[in-house]
């Protein structure tokens, strides 16, 4: 069992949009039997996670800076969306960050999203493997990973599994813990399947159906952004494979490093004693969101010992809700330090 201690001063601090470094203390098991058990489970985990994964070639948009400071293969940024999102969701912020940082930005579609291929397997090990292959295929050197929600956990897994492939990382409103997905996601799948079955020809028809499952207009528009007309048909269908994503929901709240775990409330913490990303990492959380509560901060610090934390007064959709605050946090983290 892992004993977790978060200093009272860390809990009292409020970022108010400014960067701060959080100090954590994590006490890991010391008895030899506990350490032996941990190492055996870790070895089994790594053996399992290294089993062959059939990767897919990711679709992407390349956003070029007006005044590049390096070429497109050197220190680029790879931007990863969340569940039901796509590369187009990050188009505006990618252009802005490319301008501010002078770096090329690859906004990718993760598997089973956007224009990327569909595959029956949809989990973080597979998504991280896809991005690792993307880095190698494009000859990218020292990339920065930025991911929101599902994309954030994909970035964390890749950084922990292949740290030599990544320079640094920005995780937006997610943490390296097991947590239940909210009940809204199965509801979205149900509503989207009903739209597919209805054979709608206009988005307004789809919106009326989806309103039974989601009252928030902005969220409905986000989900309906996945509609398209296949093969020139008048009927609109969802581009994302709803049957695959529906089956994947049960484990998309998981963090896939299979080690002995400690339990705190509804959160299950994996033992990170031998897996760390010892390079700069930025965690951005929405203070109105429940995805990164104070209880998980110690585990972030142990998986990512050089992490910084920024709080932004927003919900889970931090980037779209507070784009300027998000831009400032990322630029401050990535701009060259004197």
TrEMBL record:
<comment type="similarity">
    <text>Belongs to the AB hydrolase superfamily.</text>
</comment>
<dbReference type="GO" id="GO:0005739">
    <property type="term" value="C:mitochondrion"/>
</dbReference>
<dbReference type="InterPro" id="IPR000073">
    <property type="entry name" value="AB_hydrolase_1"/>
</dbReference>
<dbReference type="InterPro" id="IPR029058">
    <property type="entry name" value="AB_hydrolase_fold"/>
</dbReference>
<protein>
    <submittedName>
        <fullName>Alpha/beta-hydrolase</fullName>
    </submittedName>
</protein>
<dbReference type="GO" id="GO:0052689">
    <property type="term" value="F:carboxylic ester hydrolase activity"/>
</dbReference>
<dbReference type="Pfam" id="PF00561">
    <property type="entry name" value="Abhydrolase_1"/>
</dbReference>
<feature type="domain" description="AB hydrolase-1">
    <location>
        <begin position="76"/>
        <end position="323"/>
    </location>
</feature>
<keyword id="KW-0378">Hydrolase</keyword>
